[in-house]
Amino acid sequence: MPRKVDHNALRTNQAFIITLLILAFILSSTVLVAFVAAVMVIGAAYPPARLFVWIYQRILRPAGFVKPDVQTDNPEPHRFAMAVGGVFLAASTLALLAEAAAVGWILSWIVVVLAALNLFVGFCAGCFVYYQLNKLGIPGFNRAPLEA
Questions:
Q1: Rounded distance, CA 4 to CA 66, Å?
Q2: Contact 60, 106 (CB under 8 A)
Q3: How far is it, in rounded angstroms, from Cα 35 to Cα 87?
Q4: Predicted structure pTM score
């Protein structure tokens, strides 16, 4: 049975992640990196708690700032990508707390670059990895790419 995913909700989520992480870098704010990590990990584990998607659904979309872009898609690869990004940011937070700033900011910038790649080019690296793991038959990665 085909399922639907609002890709503008995903793009709004990515825009928040990019903006907040760049702001965190400018302000040298470990707390902001930790906040984005928590939002991503919690949202991946429990989708109704996706804060940035909630802002999209409750504020931006009703105000007409962003219109829905609902497509037939699997949500699991997107959740996997969010979880991986959240893990990178959790590791970034730990590195920043351990005063390994270069490692911490490199991990954060990896998330920024991959989110920007998805937002501006439409390529989800986490989704690509998810589907490669599906092709290998790895348990838990049970959704195959949809037919075009």
A1: 17
A2: no
A3: 12
A4: 0.94
